[in-house]
Amino acid sequence: MAMSASHFQSFDDVTDPSLGAGRLAALRGILKDRGLDGFVVPRADAYQNEYVSQGEERLAWLTGFTGSAGIAVVLADRAALFIDGRYTVQARTQVDGSVFELVDITVTAPCAWLGDVLSAGCRLGYDPWLQTPAEVERFTAVCEKAEAKLVPVIENPVDVLWTDRPKIAPAPIVDHPLEFAGRSTDDKLTLLRSGLAAAKAGVLLLSDPHAVAWLFNIRGGDVSHTPLPLCRALVPLEDRPTLFVAVSRLTAGARAALEKVAAIEEPDAIASALNMLGSHKARVMLDPSNAPAALVSHLQTSGAEIILGPDPVTALKAIKNEGEIRGMRAAHKRDGVALCRFLAWLDRRASSDSVTEIDAAIALETFRADTGLLKDISFPTISAAGPNAALPHYRVTEATNRVIGQGLFLIDSGAQYQDGTTDVTRTIAVGELSDTMRDHFTRVLKGHIAIATARFPKGTTGAHLDAFARRALWDIGTDFDHGTGHGVGSYLSVHEGPQRISKTAHVALLPGMILSNEPGYYREGHYGIRTENLLLVTEITIPDQERPMLGFETLTLAPFDRRAIALDLLTREEWAWIDAYHARVLQEVAPELDTEARAWLTAACAPL
């Protein structure tokens, strides 16, 4: 089939390490003019979104680094970029290491680094719209210890220098129908207000657009790959809530639905609303991890009493209701059909044709678009051959694009459908593999199966389960430097908290939560492996059980590459699980495929 260009992702090379020195010098110049000795540049927007619009990519503009998490600290004589293990190799290729020190944030946090280099009298600037109160508190403490000063900056100096900064393209804000939302806004408000009453709060300030979109059953397009309108809300314990959103972009249906449950104001009206709360000495609850310091400062100045605590909507939306679960199952079946069509297409072409990483990314997006229901991809597709796959968050560009040659090819992708969000990774064998490749592939798969088949008592956290995914890799003295799994939203962000599976995940897993299961292995300069499905936490029954028990239902439907499995490493139980999973994939997906793709899937799902 002919593949069209991508509608949802660009493969342009948007960074140039050679620009870093000039931009850093220009930033230092403007800081000096303003009487500042340094400045903090986070990868963030005013809503603390993970995925941000192009015009909010200040960190990428300054340093060249395009990863989804990082922060730079610029001083007069030193500058550092702090990234985690997912991005170590990527940062080395995108950033001029002669002007930016590359620091592993898991080893040395920005505040620890500043504690060693700040001098007395130093004035360190920050943008209060891009930092949370918790972050400001940490920076303030380190500055005070060094006898330096943390200074809020009204006009971000990066914005002054970034003269061709892209503007947000206005997107319509639509209602999210009850058949997909599963619960009305009135019902959600009732659940939310019970939590507010327990916290003795008079008003909740919602600054996370994910929480607002979920609560008011709306969706938008202001953020890349996540159907979000940029908005905030105030939810009082008793009166009507107020939604602060671009009113002109509300569709007639969305506005009619919202006016039944809330007052609607423009985004900049929130300042006067906060002043009013302050004048009444209101008790305002907010989450210090996502509210911008600018709004918190405004509340404090106005006289409001602030109650700090986790956003209660986060926990509510993490537990999917029956409608959302039904939608996620339907979305994953639809996505499984598209993915199997793609895998059949790739299997026919990869060994003989010059299929590139970009060709594969466009092809998979095209098969998803053929469903007629694709709204967007859920993140830029990681289409990675050979050494590129050793970068866990690799982004293919025209400059890095490789032909998928002999060896392992990794593709990590996802889709946004109105009834659900998907995220799936498969590592594909192209031609002959070495015994070492098969060994690593199978150990990753063993870790995946260990999570998928886990049974655990209520109260178990992701940290308790994380080691299950690593045991087979630890046995040979290796590991992977990312979490095993993240939460996933329902036609919202592909990365959603508070649930995770990682060494530091301390939130109990509950029925209705959805998480990814994605152990990996990365041999720098050679290849990478990751195997990912999405899982639904469910209640289970075990004979003679003494405690309430939980387990997982696998949502994703696509075969693992049997050609990459070292069968002698599998236990009898693992072998049986793979065969049972493949039989289920074949049963659910095959009827939706054409003859050629069905024949491919039948062979791909044959018993081991």
From TrEMBL:
Protein name (record): Aminopeptidase
Domain Peptidase M24 C-terminal: 548-608
Key words, A-Z: Aminopeptidase, Hydrolase, Metal-binding, Protease
Pfam families: Creatinase_N, Creatinase_N_2, Peptidase_M24, Peptidase_M24_C
Record keyword Cytoplasm present: no
PANTHER family: XAA-PRO AMINOPEPTIDASE 1
Family from the record: Belongs to the peptidase M24B family.
Domain (Peptidase M24): residue spans on this chain: 327-539
Species per Swiss-Prot/TrEMBL record: Agaricicola taiwanensis
Residues of the Creatinase N-terminal domain: 23-153
GO molecular function: metal ion binding; metalloaminopeptidase activity
GO CC, one annotated term: cytoplasm
Listed Gene3D superfamilies: Creatinase/methionine aminopeptidase superfamily, Creatinase/prolidase N-terminal domain
InterPro entries on file: Creatin/AminoP/Spt16_N, Creatinase/aminopeptidase-like, Creatinase_N, Pept_M24, Pept_M24B, Peptidase_M24_C, X-Pro_aminopeptidase_P
